[in-house]
Amino acid sequence: KGFKIPIMTRYDVICKIRQFASNYGNQLTFTFLALATLDRLLLAHQSPTLRRWGNRVPLANKLVVAFSLIWLVILCHRLIWYDTINGQCTGQAGFYVYFDNIFNAVVTCLLPMVTLTVLGILIGRSVHRVVQRRRVVPTATINESAHGDQSAIQKIDTQLTIMLFLDIFVSMISFLPYAAQLIYGNITGTWPKSPLRVAWENVVSEIINLLSYIFFSGPFYVSIISLSGFRHQLLRALGLKKQQTTTYTQRGVTMGTTQNNTNIQQR
């Protein structure tokens, strides 16, 4: 049981930082996932004008800095009005408690849910278009090398799109129960409840809090499932798979040298 010193509810500074940092990290992770999905949608769009906006690294760096500052300003109220009250790290009594609950329900939960739902529908259509393009038989004017490069690019494009689609699905699993919990808590906060009901609500609340961490651990498993290159690199890093050596280049050079020597002798 340790020293029985509740650090999170004993010091106001730790309480403020913890409440701010947890929410700040959640919003940044959601925002970067949404931006990555939007980038894939732009790259797969049929319009050349919109495709030019995709895969711009300088623009992506600026957006990362901009949204980091924006969420810092939006969430800084937790650094000011959160305190340890009656052994709990919570917002100050009065209007702020009501504001913070509504803020969490709308900004922290409903906004990501709506955004990810829209992006999920759009990325699903993008996956369908990519699959349809892979079914198209190449014309005779395309040589074998170009066709191989095109197939590799389409394969990578499909894997990345499916990865983002699965990331959105995992995010919805994490956000939806948490949003329902906040809305339920705001509605039934003043209702009289029996000790048994309070106990069951605490159990469900802890389970939902555990589910919310899927949003952070899920992308690793999604990458393993959807990206074959990531799986190979992971197996090599763990020593479970030997790195394949390419000998075809040396053979090609040897064959080319032998052929050149034969031509010289014939001359």
How would you summarize what this structure contains?
With about 270 residues, this protein is an all-alpha fold. It has helices at about 10-45, 50, 55-75, 80, 95-135, 145-190, 195-210, 215-225, 230-235, 250-265, and strands at about 80-85, 90.
Topology:
Layout: H1 12-43, H2 48-51, H3 57-75, H4 78-81, E1 82-85, E2 88-91, H5 95-135, H6 144-188, H7 195-212, H8 214-226, H9 228-237, H10 248-266
Antiparallel strand pairs: 1-2
Description of the structure:
- The protein has helices at residues 12-43, 48-51, 57-75, 78-81, 95-135, 144-188, 195-212, 214-226, 228-237, 248-266, and strands at residues 82-85, 88-91.
- The protein has 267 residues and is mainly α.
- It has one domain: Rhodopsin 7-helix transmembrane proteins (Rhopdopsin 7-helix transmembrane proteins).
- A two-stranded antiparallel ribbon has the order 1-2.
- Strand 1 (82-85) and strand 2 (88-91) form a beta hairpin.
- The protein starts with 11 loop residues before the first helix and ends with a helix.
